[in-house]
Write a structure and sequence with these properties.
This protein has 285 residues and is α+β, with helices and mostly antiparallel strands. Helix content is 27%, strand content 29%.
C-alpha cells in the first residue's frame, strides 16, 4: 500500500509549479495531477540508482508490465480521423486513453527538433506532440502528448565537471532532480538499467537507459507511469539525457509496448543535428 501524500506537500508542489510558470497555464489547471508525476519521472528517475538491476545487451528487453489488466479483449471503438488533434490525440474514441496509446504504439517515428534546430528527437505520431517549456528547469527540448499528458518527453543538456560518460550524467541528473520528485510525492517502483551502444555516423558510442515505474497517489489524483532516462556520450564537459514517460494506469501492457518501442526505436536515434560541430550554449529551449 502506497501512502497518500500529505496535503501540505500538494500545496507546496502547486506553488512550486506556479513559480516555474509553465506555458499553457490552462493546461496546468486541467492536468496538474497528471503533469506532476510525468515531470518527476522524467527529471528524477534516478532515485535509487545504487539499487537498480543492470544488464548489458544489444537488443534491450523491458521489465514486466504492471500486474493490472492491459488492453481490453475487444478493442474499443477507435476515434474518427477528424477528431484526432494535438490537444486530444485520443479523439472521440470510446476510450481516448487506449486510442492515444495505440497511436504511440503504432505510428511511425519522425524527428522533431528544438527551437534552434540543433537536436533531433524521434517522436511517434509527431504531428500530435506539442512543445512544453518549463521556466526554472532548463531543458533543451520538452514535449507533451495531448492536454491530458498521455506521455511526455524532455531532453536535458547541462554542463558537468569531470567524466561526461553516461553513468556520470545519470548520477548528476539524480542529484539535481530528486527534490522535485520528493516534493511531488512520487513513489519510484521497479527499476532496471540497460547498457547498450548508439551508432552516430561512423562512431559507436556507449549509452545507458534507466527504466523506471512510478506512482502518484494523493488527495487529487492517482496514476501509474512507466518511463525511462537515456544518457548519451556527448561533447566533453556536457551531459545529454533524454527522458520519456507514459501513463500506465488503465492500460499497463499497452504502455509497456509504447516504452519498448521507445527503447529500441527512438532512444538510440536521438542525436545532434549535422550542423552542430561543437558544444552548443546551455540555453533553455
Amino acid at each position: 500500500m502506497i501512502p497518500r501524500a500529505p496535503l501540505r506537500a500538494l500545496r507546496a508542489t502547486f506553488v512550486y509549479l506556479l513559480a516555474l510558470k509553465l506555458v499553457h497555464p490552462e493546461g496546468l489547471a486541467m492536468s496538474l495531477p497528471r503533469l506532476l508525476p510525468l515531470l518527476a519521472l522524467l527529471l528524477a528517475a534516478e532515485g535509487c540508482v545504487s539499487q537498480t538491476n543492470t544488464q548489458t545487451q544489444d537488443a534491450p528487453s523491458t521489465p514486466d508490465a504492471p500486474s493490472a489488466s492491459g488492453a481490453p479483449s475487444a478493442p474499443p471503438r477507435p476515434p474518427s480521423p477528424e477528431s484526432v488533434t494535438p490537444k486530444n490525440p485520443g479523439g472521440d474514441a470510446d476510450d481516448p486513453t487506449f486510442a492515444a496509446l495505440m497511436r504511440l504504439a503504432t505510428e511511425p517515428w519522425v524527428n522533431k527538433s528544438d527551437n534552434a534546430n540543433t537536436i533531433l528527437v524521434p517522436l511517434a505520431d509527431k504531428k500530435n506532440w506539442r512543445g512544453l517549456r518549463i521556466f526554472g528547469r532548463p531543458t533543451r527540448a520538452s514535449f507533451r502528448y495531448g492536454d491530458a499528458y498521455y506521455a511526455a518527453g524532455t531532453v536535458l543538456y547541462t554542463p558537468i565537471e569531470g567524466p561526461n560518460d553516461p553513468e556520470a550524467c545519470l548520477a548528476k541528473t539524480f542529484d539535481e532532480a530528486m527534490p522535485l520528485a520528493e516534493a511531488n510525492g512520487v513513489r519510484i517502483g521497479g527499476r532496471q538499467r540497460i547498457r547498450m551502444n548508439q551508432v552516430v555516423g561512423a562512431e559507436v558510442r556507449p549509452m545507458v537507459i534507466e527504466l523506471i515505474e512510478g506512482r502518484i497517489d494523493n488527495l487529487l489524483h492517482r496514476d501509474d507511469y512507466i518511463g525511462g532516462l537515456a544518457a548519451y556520450q556527448s561533447f566533453p564537459g556536457t551531459c545529454l539525457v533524454h527522458g520519456f514517460a507514459v501513463v500506465a494506469t488503465e492500460h499497463p501492457e499497452l504502455a509497456a509496448k509504447v516504452r519498448s518501442r521507445w527503447i529500441t526505436e527512438a532512444a538510440p536515434k536521438l542525436a545532434w543535428a549535422n550542423k552542430v560541430k561543437q558544444a552548443p550554449e546551455f540555453k533553455d529551449r
